[in-house]
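Hi, does anyone understand the following?
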Amino acid sequence: MKIFPLALFIAFCPLTVLGQSSSKKAPLPPHPNAPATQDIQTETITPQSTKSVVPAPIPASTGYLDPQQVKALMHKVWLAEYRVSDLLTQVHPEKWKMLPAARQSFGQSLESLRKSMAAEEGWRNQFDSRPDSLYLGFQTYVAINSVLPRVDGLGRSVSHYENASFGGQFGQAANQLFDLQQLLEPHLTYLLKNQDNVLLVAQTNMAACQNELNFAEHDKEGHATPMKNIAPVFKGRKRTTHTTATGHAK
């Protein structure tokens, strides 16, 4: 009788173990959208790039020209001068039919034009070597202003005594030189204004420094010491008295 319960227990035990093993939870299948690896993916945040602050360029409306632009402008002025000089070599007033007085006047105008062009060329060369000089730029501007009316007058004379087409070429060269002069004027205005501002700032700083110096030295000199009022003593030549004739006789 004891063997039967033992055999029954032995037969029932494997079924119990099998039931417990089947009752364990199976692992969940992976998510179809999950990454293949088990590493946690984190978002990398990069810092925003800081842009370097670039100084604002000088606006074109100010008329400022850098040294290279000034040199390029002076080269164009030189080309306009060369054009006028080339035209002058083709002028032969000795072949014109004109009165002696008019011929003499034209010769004087021609000589005046050549002198003014030589002066303008000298100032232009100096300004080309020192493009930041307000003085040389101003002298170049004035020299061009002296050349322009003489070229225009010569062109009218050529149109009258030779032909209008040849005289018109002098007018075109003068117009080109005038346009270049107008490009130079805003640059000179900017330099003049900038120099005036520098002078104003220097004067203002000098006045402020003077006021600070006066305030700092105010108590260091001490108070003025009053002087005793003394009657002045005059030390001059003693005046000699002359005796009268009557007194001398006595």
Observations:
- The chain is about 65% helix and 0% strand.
- The helical segments are 3-22, 67-88, 100-129, 134-161, 164-216, 245-249.
- Residues 63-215 form a domain with the Four Helix Bundle (Hemerythrin (Met), subunit A) fold (CATH 1.20.120.230).
